[in-house]
Write a structure and sequence with these properties.
Residues 200-306 are annotated as: Disordered. With 321 residues, this protein is an alpha+beta fold. It has a domain at 17-125 and 151-198. It has helices at residues 31-38, 44-49, 60-67, 77-92, 110-113, 159-171, 182-192, 202-205, 230-236, 287-290, 303-320; strands spanning 5-6, 10-11, 19-23, 55-59, 71-74, 117-121, 129-132, 139-142, 151-153.
């Protein structure tokens, strides 16, 4: 007789004394979707996620392999087909509390039919698996391709959450085509359907092809200077309104960078030459002669080179004599 096992009757070694609690979902984004599709009231799924409905009781070795997506729990296909019809009917019904067109999952026979699971193994995993009989305690080892696995019932986890977790496990398996898989169809409806009473984000409400609204510039915003052609640049030279805005005025008294001679300056010798500043546009040309010399860059003679040349010439003269 095939007796249904519980999830803690699975292990990857012969030890069945190390049981742990495995949380199915932390807080999935499809809470509102699941409430609408299952006909639940607002807050019921949140309560499920915070209680025992969201937990599996598993052996430590099995919990580690389950987290690595080595296996999943699959409901019967006929039960998944009925669950898919329920989801579609509730998605088309107006979402309001107690609406006659909305069917609750726990009021249907479906909740009992999806409570029986078969154990499906990842095609890429071929490790030996152990199961323990819930009545006799007999331990059975199962080798690849696992032809005689028993059926399973969850101790406390809600079958809808277990089915959704199995859908998430299935997506990571190396299977090319899942379009005909009933578990994939049911999970895809939950994760892609948007309930009518949940407002979408502004980015989703924008019509296709519309641009994102621009923000108003701050009050201190300074626009960049206009890009002008050669002709426009010449015209802008006489029109100050077209030029870029001037920089922010510096605080305090401006300091002239022109050097003013003082009593601490080094005396000027004959070997040093001084440069004079050129007149500005507002100064007449006579300023070149009337302006007083201003200390500028000092130029030094090339004394070392001159001495070397003189020494070479003296040697040449001596050789000729």
């Amino acid at each position: 007789m095939n007796v249904a096992h519980t999830e803690d009757c699975i292990s990857y070694d012969a030890d069945f004394d190390d049981t742990t609690s495995y949380e199915l979902f932390a807080k999935p984004r499809m809470v509102a979707d699941l409430e609408s599709l299952c006909g639940f009231k607002k807050g019921e799924v949140e309560e499920m996620l915070s209680g025992e409905d969201n937990k599996l009781s598993m052996q430590m070795s099995a919990a580690q392999m389950y987290g690595r997506r080595a296996f999943l729990f699959r409901p019967p296909d006929d039960a998944l087909g009925s669950l898919l019809k329920l989801y579609k009917r509730n998605s088309e019904a107006p979402r309001s509390s107690g609406h006659p067109q909305t069917l609750r999952l726990d009021e249907e026979e479906l909740s009992r039919r999806i409570s029986s699971f078969s154990l499906e193994m990842n095609p890429g995993v071929q490790s030996p698996l152990f199961t323990k009989h819930p009545v006799t305690g007999e331990v059975t080892i199962h080798e690849y391709p696992y032809p005689h696995l028993p059926t399973f019932e969850m101790r406390s986890a809600h079958p809808v959450l277990v089915s959704l977790k199995s859908y998430r496990q299935l997506l990571f398996w190396n299977i090319e085509d899942l379009s005909s898989d009933m578990l994939y169809k049911v999970g895809r409806v939950v994760y892609r359907w948007v309930p009518p009473n949940v407002p979408q984000s502004p980015s989703l409400r924008r019509p296709l092809g519309s641009s994102r609204p621009r923000r108003a510039p701050p009050s201190s915003y300074i626009p960049p200077p206009p890009v002008l052609s050669g002709k426009r640049k010449r015209e802008a030279a006489n029109d100050h309104s077209m030029l870029a805005p001037s920089k922010r005025a510096r605080l305090g008294t401006p300091v002239s960078r022109r050097h003013v001679p003082s009593e601490y300056d080094a005396p000027v010798t004959r070997s040093k030459t001084m440069t004079q500043s050129s007149p500005t546009r507002d100064e007449p040309s006579s300023a070149l002669f009337n302006s007083s010399p201003v200390a500028g860059r000092t130029r030094y003679g090339r004394a070392a080179k001159d001495k070397a040349v003189e020494a070479m010439e003296s040697v040449i003269r001596k050789s000729r004599v």
